[in-house]
Specification:
The chain is of the alpha/beta class and 286 residues long. It is built from nine helices and eleven strands. It has helices spanning 3-13, 52-68, 110-121, 151-156, 173-183, 197-209, 214-217, 233-248, 274-277; strands at 17-26, 36-40, 45-47, 72-77, 89-96, 101-106, 124-130, 145-148, 165-168, 190-193, 220-221.
Length: 286
Amino acid sequence: MDVWTAAAEAVRAGTPAAFVTITSVGGSAPRHPGARMFVAATGEAIGTIGGGALEHRLIEVARDVATSGTPRKLVIDTVRDLGMCCGGQVEAYVEPLAVRAPFVIFGCGHVAAATAPLLRSLDFAVTVVDARPDLTTADRLPGVELVVDDPRHWLDGTLPDPRCWYLVVTHDHALDLDLVERLLPRAHAWVGLIGSRGKISRFLVRLEAAGVDAATRSRLCGPVGLDIGAETPAEIAVAIAAEVVRLRRGAADRAPMPLHAAPLKARPDGAVPAMLAGAPPGDPTR
């Protein structure tokens, strides 16, 4: 199997992986610039960038990059850093393979039907789980994986995945609570729960009574969605997707605000873009 076939299979399976590419060499080095290796998060490697201690070091870095999603550039002196005798220097770029993060929605009602396609357009691999076959249909939810099963039964049969995002939007509050109690202790990227502030408060009290510690309870994000005054399922879906983007892009420490209310940034020459400078208050171009 070559690196491209391995990469295609990883993308289809949603398996974290990384590419290692030699970008430059100096002195004696085992491979020339352009040599590439595929490395799965498990450490399985396809292709080679020269073998030996150099390859072992870069496989370890690639495993970390595959898991963290953060690319790295390394300059390695094979004598000083690895104790090799070839006397060369290698520059390598290690980049994560762009695989879709899994996103599971429990519930298949109006909000789920509006949210799933939005999340899919944001490059998540979306799965919707609901026990009601009349709602869990491809006509209502095209392009997403559908599971007709009791969400608790399905969840109990899956392995924890730290990359997975979960959204709980079922039709039953008791089911919501059961799912949240199962989800919070598991490895996950995010757990969101729909509902009023009163509902969330009552759930937190019940979770505490069930022995769920404060640190674990604090992992629950609810009421889910940015506060944009959403009422309809489509509007609620936008609010949920906006919160997901905000978290995924690392903007959780910034208070969300309308773009037109943000400070206007000038160009390096001090000028304000004409399109924005001339926009009257309330104009959508602001």
